[in-house]
Amino acid sequence: MKNAMIIATLGLASVLSFSAGAAVHQVNAEQAQGLQSMGTVSVSQIGSAPMDMRHELAAKAEKEGASSYRIIEARTGDTWHATAELYK
């Protein structure tokens, strides 16, 4: 019984570590040089914080299968809007 629990725990840990390693990260213009563009994604929200917008962009980038993204447009005010270019 203990062996089964240890194996299950190790299996779960490896899945979690793979997910953390596969996370999408934000890059700047210099870091984007040489990366292959996959298109863009945009998000708009009313009354959200800049960090919320980054989380939304990262989630959309990950859903599209990107490894990284670069914010190419950001507007603030009553409504936030941001566009990011996705990279493989």
Automatic annotation (TrEMBL):
Xref: Pfam families: YdgH_BhsA-like
Endoplasmic reticulum is among the record's keywords: no
Signal peptide: 1-22
SUPFAM superfamilies in the cross-refs: YdgH-like
Keyword terms of this UniProt record: Signal
InterPro entries: BhsA/McbA_stress_biofilm_assoc, Dodecin-like, Stress_YhcN-like, YdgH-like_sf, YdgH/BhsA/McbA-like_dom
Domain YdgH/BhsA/McbA-like: 35-88
Record keyword Cytoplasm present: no
Family matches, as NCBIfam families: stress_YhcN
The protein, known as: DUF1471 family stress response protein YhcN-B
Annotated organism of origin: Scandinavium lactucae
Lineage: Bacteria, Pseudomonadati, Pseudomonadota, Gammaproteobacteria, Enterobacterales
